[in-house]
Design goal:
By secondary structure, the chain is mostly helical. The protein contains three helices and no strands. The model has no long low-confidence stretch (mean pLDDT 86).
């Protein structure tokens, strides 16, 4: 019983650390600004 509790506590701790230290940053990959097709449709000046 004690080992099951320790196991659950350890897993929750690992999940918390993984959530805090998550290296996934979607803004670095998906929010790059307008692409070439957009620029074709919206010429400058």
């Amino acid at each position: 019983m004690l080992m099951a509790f320790v196991g659950r506590l350890t897993q929750r701790w690992r999940d918390l650390i993984a959530e805090i230290m998550d290296p996934y940053r979607p803004e670095l990959h998906y929010m790059r600004g307008p692409g070439p097709r957009w620029r074709e449709r919206h010429p400058e000046g």
